[in-house]
Amino acid sequence: AQSVTQPDIHITVSEGASLELRCNYSYGATPYLFWYVQSPGQGLQLLLKYFSGDTLVQGIKGFEAEFKRSQSSFNLRKPSVHWSDAAEYFCAVVIDYKLSFGAGTTVTVRA
Amino acid sequence: DVKVTQSSRYLVKRTGEKVFLECVQDMDHENMFWYRQDPGLGLRLIYFSYDVKMKEKGDIPEGYSVSREKKERFSLILESASTNQTSMYLCASTHGDTRTGELFFGEGSRLTVL
C-alpha cells in the first residue's frame, strides 16, 4: 500500500508566483517526514524534514512545509518561485527505519 | 561536503548479462542504500546496508544482489539483466539514525537493458 501520496504529477507555475506541492502520508502516529528535490541530471537533495515540535518547518532555498496531523498532510510551499526551482520534488516518510518515497511532482516554471 | 559517487552514469547492457553498479561515499557513513527510480513510481528501495558485510532486503530485491566489503563501497549486482530492469539507479548514504539522518545521493546510473 502506498504510504506517501503526491496527488499532483505535474505543476506549471509562473516565475514569481507561489507554489504549493501536496503530500499525504498513511503511516505512523508520529511520522518522520521529508521533502527532497531532484534537479535535472542530479541526485536528490534534502529540502527539509519534520520529526516533532513546531509544525511549520523551514528549509533551504526558501521552502517551507507544514505538518497537519488531522489531514495526514505535509505540504511544501514557496512564496515566490524562481526559474531554478524547476525540478522534481519527492515527499518521503520513514517506515521501519527506511525512507519510503512518493511518486514525485514535476514542477515547470514558465517565464 | 559529502560526496557519493556512482562510477557509471550511463550503461547499455544486453539481456542475460551480469551488471555491476558501483557506489562510493567519502564520509565514513555506515548506512548505504540502493534505490530504483521509475517515472510515476518514485524511488523504490532495493537493498540497504548498515555496516560492512551486512545487507537487508528492501521493497523490491528480486533480481538483484549487493556487496559491501568495505565501508565506503556498496555495489549493486544484476546477476542476469532483464529488460524490466531498465531504470535509473540511485545510491545514497547516511550516518547514524536512519529515521532522522539526511540521505546523500549520488547522481544516478541510468541502465538500459536491450
Shape of chain B: globular
Q: pLDDT below 50 for ≥5 consecutive residues: which ranges of chain A? A: none
Kindly report the name of the CATH homologous superfamily of chain A: Immunoglobulins
How much of the polypeptide of chain A forms β-strand, as a percent range?
over 45%
* Main β-sheet description of chain B: 7 strands, mixed
Report the total helices of chain A.
0
Question: Largest interface: which pair?
Answer: A-B, 23 and 25 residues
Contiguous uncertain segments of 5+ residues of chain B: none
Tell me the span between the first and last alpha carbons of chain B: 37 Å
Elements of chain B, N to C (H/E): EEEEEEEEEEE
In the CATH scheme, the class of chain B would be Mainly Beta
Find the structural class of chain B using helix and strand composition.
mainly beta
Report the helical percentage of chain B. under 10%
Cα-based radius of gyration of chain B, to the nearest Å: 13 Å
- Major sheet of chain A: 6 strands, mixed
User: In total, how many domains does the architecture of chain B comprise?
Assistant: 1
The CATH topology name of chain B reads: Immunoglobulin-like
Q: What CATH architecture of chain B would you give?
A: Sandwich
What's the Cα radius of gyration of chain A? 13 Å
Assembly state here? heterodimer
